[in-house]
Structure formats: structure tokens, C-alpha cells
Amino acid sequence: MKILVTAKRVPDPNATIKVRPDGSGIVTDNVKYVINPFCEIAIEEALRIKEKHGGAEVVLVSVGGKVAQEQLRTGLAMGADRAILVVSEQEVDPAVVARILKKLIENEKPELVVMGKQAIDDDSNVVGQMVAELLGWAQATFASAIQFADDKQSAVVTREVDGGLEDLEIRLPAVVTADLRLNEPRYASLPGIMKARKKELKEIPIAEVGVDLTPTVKIRKLEPPPKRQAGKKVGSVEELVQLLHTEAKVI
What is the pTM of this model? Predict the structure, then answer.
């Protein structure tokens, strides 16, 4: 079995993010970057599948600048076998990323594609669904558990929905997007870090992928959230009810 996993480079979720004065993007100076947490969960799940069933190859894929090598090397240190970086120094929107992934998947021919359900930088939550649609493959989103049939031709994916949990049986090849409770990612070990230096990391210029790079979404401006206003103390329940009615207008 070959498993292809996406690994997006995103700002550290614990970092303080500031918007540029002109609203053209975020201030990147001194901002630490990491693997998107949901992509890290997807990598961990692929590694667990490999360890449980044996004989699997885990291939990482990322689209971004050459600096994304750092995050791919981290994934290789966790245990992935090789990586592919589609090099683009310009931001690409989800539809373009989906078209690039479709092309790579057609070339690599994996039985399973595992992705984070969304990236924490833009929270689009659409690439996995787009890829499955472009390929005409089965898909299971928001996965919290994956169980394969004995013949590895199908799988049952437990996914989180508003009413609780839902089990979907899908035929392979398929696209699965990972939710928060799918697993707890491992840390890269020192031997894994040393081995990662020798593992294949192939770079492909985005112009050579052979897909339409026309964006479908244009971000015109970013704005920071408004500052929270100071709270107000009230002297009685009656005053609270009155404020909720006249100012907050919630009752």
C-alpha cells in the first residue's frame, strides 16, 4: 500500500500573529513555522497504518516555498519514507492546491490519501473534498478512527458529526481527512532526525506540474480582530437584565 499525506507549512498556533499595516498579509519576522497540526495528525495516522499492516510506503507532499523543506524533513524524521515539494514562492489558493495534488496523485498512484481536515492559517477546509471530487474517489472527512478490511480493499471510517459519531464504509482508493481526535502525533526521535537527512526530498517547480494556476480566490485585505472592550460591573440583577435588553439586545 502507498499512502500519500499532505504537510502544509503554517505559523505556530502559539505564536502572536500581527497583520501588516497595509493589510496585505501577516508580519512574518521572527514567527516560528510548523507542520499544520491536522497534517501532523494525518502523518501519524499513515505511520500507524504502515506499522500495523506492514509493507506500506508513506509519501509526504507540500506546496510552498523552499523553506517548507524544514516541515517535510520533520515529517520524514517522524518516519515517512520520502517527500515531494512543489516549489512556489507565491501563495496559491485551495483550488490550485487541489489541482496540483490531483496531478501528483495520478503520478504516484497511492491507494490512500490522508490529509488534515483544514489548515489553521486560513481554515478553508475544502482541499480534501476538492481532491476527492477531481479524482472521482470516495472520501471520508473529519475522521476520528480508521479500520481496514482484511483485504485492504475497503475501510470503515468513524467521523465526527453534530449528532455524535458516524461510520462510513469506503472503497479504496479514497481520500480521508483527519480530525483532532484521530490520534496523538509522535515526536521525531534523534535516530529519525539523522535518517531523515538521507531520505529523498524531491523538488518540482510549480510551473512544471502542468496544471492551471489561475486562482479562484483573491484576498484583498486582512484586518486584525477588534480589541475587546472593558467589562462593566452592575449593582443588581435588575440592572443586568436592563443592560442585556437595551445594550446587548439579547433579550
Answer: 0.87
In CATH, which of 1.10.150.110, 3.30.160.20, 3.40.50.620, 3.40.1010.20 is domain 2-224? 3.40.50.620
Domain boundaries, the chain: 2-224
Per the CB < 8 A criterion, the answer to whether 97 and 222 are in contact is: no
Task: List pLDDT tens digits, range 21-75.
Answer: 888 888 888 889 999 999 999 999 999 999 998 889 999 999 999 999 999 999 9
Secondary structure of residue 107 in the 3-state scheme = helix
Within 10 angstroms of residue 221's Cβ, the number of other Cβ atoms is 10
Nearest-angstrom CA–CA distance, 56 and 124: 30
| Main-chain dihedrals φ then ψ at residue 178, nearest 5 degrees | -90, 135
Where helices occur in the chain by DSSP H, the ranges are 37-53, 69-78, 94-108, 127-135, 190-196, 237-243
Backbone φ and ψ of 92, nearest 5°: -120, 145
